[in-house]
Amino acid sequence: MTVQDFQVGLDHYLPLRDIVFRNLRTAILRGDFQPGERLMENQLADKMGVSRTPIREAIRKLELEGLVVMVPRKGAEVANITEKDIRDVLEVRATLEGLAIKLACENMQTDDIRHLIQVNDEFIKAVKAKKADDVIERDIAFHDVIFEASGNEKLIQILNNLREQIYRYRTEYIYHIADHNQLVKEHLQIVEALKNKKPELATDLAIAHVQAQQKSVIEHTKKKTGCKKKSSE
Q: Topology of domain 83-231, per CATH?
């Protein structure tokens, strides 16, 4: 992506530095800026219609979050996705989603199952339409229904906080890797387990669902790293 393509979202209720930070953070998490891509202060400032000061402050905060690295004599770059990063985040996600779906299985009523099926139908429509952005959003919505049904507010809060870190890997997975029909199959299996009140099966399916993503993203990351090494030789 070029800086010229960067879409800016403004929120007049927030301080300018927070607007800049949120826009850049979202762009990185969504994959609009690719790993290794330079973040040029002047170009970003021109694009967003601000001075370099809030850009510099935002980049500093992004560095603290591990989304940006400072490279000597080059400046700020989007941090690469490492195998350890993927394992760390998705291992946590698998454990938390396993707990969430177990609780949801115990709590979900007929109306909840009906709602989950409706949301999953929208996911299937997005897959058939081959619209990756819609697939991502419908996938998030599917999991959100399950999280809410867990009834555990603290768990939901933790999962929501983790969501933005996961978004980067979910985008990579959906855009470049995923067999979307396999995702449909996995979702349908999860729905069936919840509908039949089988918490152990639902938990196993949810964990396997995340582990499949972890394996695929790691393999894809290794391939990309290998290609970059070859091109630089």
A: Four Helix Bundle (Hemerythrin (Met), subunit A) (1.20.120)
